[in-house]
Amino acid sequence: MDDAVIHLEKRHLAAVGFDLYMRLLDEAIRETRGEIVSEPPEVAIDLDLGAYLPDAYIPSPAQRMAAYRQLAAAQTVEDSRAAIDSIRDRYGPLPEPAQLLAEVVRLRALARRAGVASISQERAGILFRLADPSTTGDRMRVLSAAWRGGIDLTPDGILLRAGGGGLSETIHRVGDLLDALAAQTSAAARAGKVPLGQAGR
To answer: How far apart (Å, rounded) are the C-alpha atoms in residues 54 and 192?
Structure first.
């Protein structure tokens, strides 16, 4: 593998997060090949989880890059599960950073299904920015009763208030809210309406 690509991995993965890192990696690989490829909008997740594939788990840089690309290509929850299973079957049980990376990949697939463009860690909690911001208020009203004050409407999106749990609890709560948002989208689709979060697309 090109030395510049290996250097990019060691320098940037922890700093920028999995999603941005994969975009940078693709850009670096394309540059080495002289390729220019337009990139579709991607779900961004920035939860400061320390999610990555350790060198000790996959020692070969080329194989590690291939595993990252396999994870990045997962578009659905089923895809993400299959990608993780494939890596586990080949390299063995996932160490903790890789388990966290598996959760990031799963949450990204859930977010895509739920019409969420990005999820980020903020001082007051976790912010969900919707792919179609014009629907944020409507979706918030549907969710507010079930979540009983656990979420707030902000100018930037829906804020999941900070809880007292650790990483596992945070991931669980994020997944629960994504499931609720995805249920809204599915209900709108079954009713023959434009899915919430995708209006005008």
So the answer is: 46
Q: Are 110 and 175 in contact (CB under 8 A)?
A: yes
Cα→Cα distances 91→56, 70, 116, 179, Å = 10, 14, 32, 30
- Give the three-state DSSP class for 158: strand
Single pTM value for the model: 0.75
Instruction: Collect the ranges in the chain with pLDDT lower than 70.
Output: 1-41, 187-201
Q: Is 136 helix (H, G, I), strand (E, B) or coil?
A: helix
Q: How far is Cα 118 from Cα 144, in angstroms, rounded to an integer? A: 20
- Cα–Cα distance list, 53 to 1, 76, 84, 108 (Å): 17, 21, 11, 17
Q: Distance between the two ends of the chain, CA-based, in angstroms?
A: 39
Strand, coil or helix: 161: strand
* Confidence at residue 141, expressed as pLDDT on a 0 to 100 scale: 84
Cβ neighbours for 53, distance < 8 A, ≥ 6 positions apart: 64, 67, 68, 97, 98, 101
Q: How far apart are CA 65 and CA 71, in angstroms?
A: 10
